[in-house]
Amino acid sequence: MIRSPPPWGWSRASIPATETDPVASLPSLSRRRLLKASLLGLAATGLPASLWALDDDGRRQWYFSAVDDSDGGHHLAGLRRDGAGHFLLPSPERCHGGCLRPGRDEVVLFARRPGQRFHVLDARRQASTLEISASQGRHFYGHGVFDPSGRWLYVTANRIDDAMGLVQVHDAEQGYRHVGDHLLDGIGPHEVGLMPDGETLVVALGGIRTHPDSGRAKLNLSDMDPALLLLDRHSGEILERHRPSHHQLSCRHLDIAPDGTVVAGYQFQGPEWETDHPLIARRTPDGSFSEQVLPSPLQGRLAQYTASVATSQVRPSAAISAPRGNKVLVLGRTSGELLAQFDIEDAAGVRCDGAGGYLVTTGSGEVHRIDDGGRHHQLAALPLRWDNHLT
């Protein structure tokens, strides 16, 4: 439901790679069930020869995400933009974010933090082809991004012994071999993106220390030091460090607009009753950094938590999901003006649909579309639990 409909739409204002068969390692019953589900999904969709296929408007037809089924099984998934079809590939663990490899029919999906692997999918064959393990004494944080050539993959990671945050560099042309690190002088890098110049990485540094022996427990809430970082992808030199207004505002997710505007989402780690801290930050092309508190009572309804951030590639807007508050917000990308808000239960992944609107997935299996006129409708309801990101 739209609470504030805009009448004018959005246009205003080093471990070697190994080939794996994750299905073969499952118990026979689970293996049969997952293979059946995957094959049924493939049969139902009528998949094209390549999932990179574009429609008549030049937009990609397929999105990718991590999902769980109703039995708790983990999968890597493909989803048609119109919600009319999907496929599933079994995964040995729960995954999180992903990225497309430029110039190739490949998708990379990353294990959820503290993750030990990332998975390379051949989109043309609808198959998982590589499973890359974290180096000894490291774990991943669930996100990565390619350089424009498609050769270099940059992955957020943690050096476990001293909790140093890293961006690991992997060479996709050499089986995704780990070839180097950029040290971030900080803890808990999460989502990473690439600026339009193709040379500058942007990292959401969450500031939260974790350790695989403690699972997802947060070990340093009293002395967190989060930031939004910009760094040279070649040298690793940190060019900018923007700290949030409160040390417990964990900078977690981001997206980058074609003009270089960065929109970031926070998750507040302090007391539950403190609901007036900003949850959205913005770094504009001129280098200025600002934060935004939303109008009351909307600010309090977000439960101190944002998840996926998506900027439109064709409109000056950005969308942010707040699954704990059951909300999706659409904002003016530069002004921060609230254009619309939608009540979508457990809203998870959000991504630009290439036509001025957004595709939204939920933790209850629904797929929604918000169009460029501010209208919202459900495309599908599936027996799946979508993770917080769409690729």
TrEMBL record:
Q: Which domain of life is it from?
A: Bacteria
Q: Which residues form the signal peptide?
A: none
- Name of the featured protein: DUF1513 domain-containing protein
Organism, per UniProt? Halomonas litopenaei
